[in-house]
User: Which sequence fits this backbone?
């Protein structure tokens, strides 16, 4: 079963009655269609035309608004701050994830790959938390969450415990997207060591000595973890689950990602490596906050560099949802690309990279009716008037 089939059969995505969106300027794959009528039936677009017979359709007046495809976010982990707003402070999962769901919709995100870290850390990024999140999204979340949630597991290479459980998740299709991470700094790199410890302190309440002991002991698990990753990647390919590399910063890592047939390259370090990833067939994914902040927070390739060198395929929210909505407007206002092309970076192109290119990310007949109605001349999420998923209005702001 493909990812597209899984989404199609999800009980969370309920079908709707026939509706007609009338009078909006619509962003279609071929450009803007002005003052257009869009017909939707059973949760899918059936027609995008200037004039259409709307008999039998619920008519929704949208004059003066713009209609954009819903945003497809392949990598977003801002939900962690809802679950754990301070170290060792944990909010009940249902409260945290409902708050997060509303934040997603407010940022125009209609398809969300919840980037759950499967790490060696205790607490927020532990296997236990990953398990609880997966159980929630597949269970109680089906009725509580309005945004279409899919599971992105960010597996840390040196987290070797519970390997059989992770294999089962892949075999049972409880995971929709797998990325391979290796954030454990080598002992000899003191700069990365200090950065990683500083990052850990924001999530765990271990003492400095306990953190050092944990990270030192984990160095011994690299070989075992690498062997496990080979099995995980092979299982993912067998079950047609997309796999991504993460933070490739050398030719050797890019070559390894090529051998593993990675579909997506998350955050490659520089232009040359990104170009190699693309040559090997991987889509290059970068974070929208990189663009909004004016560059990478660790000094790697900026989104602006990637755009100027034509090595960028998709943007994701990374750690801040509103940045993903604002990014196409910033690319346009900076003169880097048209708004129409920039919007593809957050809709049709991530959908295609993850295997949903025939279902998500476009306002065109046959596609899921996931879209935003937006007030013009405002590049901030406050311009969103309504959010629709499969033809159902899931959020209304004005």
Assistant:
């Amino acid at each position: 079963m493909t990812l597209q089939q899984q989404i199609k059969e999800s009980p969370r995505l309920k079908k709707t009655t026939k509706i007609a969106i009338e009078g909006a300027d619509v962003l279609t794959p071929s450009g803007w269609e002005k003052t257009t009528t869009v017909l939707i039936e059973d949760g899918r677009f059936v027609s995008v035309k200037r004039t259409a017979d709307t008999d039998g359709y619920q008519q929704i007046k949208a004059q003066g608004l713009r209609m954009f495809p819903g945003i497809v976010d392949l990598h977003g982990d801002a939900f962690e701050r809802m679950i754990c707003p301070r170290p060792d402070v944990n909010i009940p999962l249902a409260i945290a994830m409902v708050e997060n769901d509303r934040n997603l919709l407010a940022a125009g995100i209609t398809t969300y790959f919840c980037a759950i870290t499967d790490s060696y850390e205790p607490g927020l990024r532990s296997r236990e938390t990953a398990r609880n999140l997966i159980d929630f999204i597949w269970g109680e979340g089906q009725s509580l969450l309005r945004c279409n949630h899919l599971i992105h597991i960010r597996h840390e290479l040196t987290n070797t415990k519970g390997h059989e459980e992770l294999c089962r998740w892949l075999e049972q299709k409880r995971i929709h997207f797998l990325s391979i991470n290796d954030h454990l700094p080598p002992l000899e790199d003191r700069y990365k060591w200090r950065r990683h410890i500083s990052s850990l302190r924001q999530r765990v309440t271990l003492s400095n000595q306990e953190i050092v002991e944990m990270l030192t002991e984990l160095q011994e698990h690299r070989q075992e973890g690498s062997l496990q990753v080979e099995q995980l990647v092979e299982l993912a390919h067998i079950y047609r689950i997309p796999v991504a590399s993460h933070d490739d910063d050398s030719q050797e890592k890019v070559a390894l990602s090529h051998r593993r047939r990675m579909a997506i390259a998350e955050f490659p370090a520089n232009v040359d490596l990104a170009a190699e990833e693309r040559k090997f067939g991987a889509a290059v994914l970068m974070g929208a906050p990189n663009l909004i902040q004016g560059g990478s927070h660790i000094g790697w390739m900026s989104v602006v560099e990637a755009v100027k060198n034509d090595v960028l395929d998709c943007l994701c929210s990374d750690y801040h949802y509103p940045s993903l909505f604002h990014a196409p407007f910033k690319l346009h206002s900076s003169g880097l690309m048209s708004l129409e092309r920039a919007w593809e970076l957050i809709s049709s192109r991530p959908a295609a990279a993850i295997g949903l290119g025939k279902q998500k990310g476009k306002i065109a007949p046959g596609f899921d009716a996931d879209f935003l109605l937006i007030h013009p001349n405002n590049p901030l999420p406050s311009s969103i008037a309504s959010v629709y998923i499969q033809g159902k209005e899931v959020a209304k702001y004005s």
Q: What stands out?
A: The longest strand covers residues 31-41. Residues 9-13 have pLDDT under 50 and may be disordered.
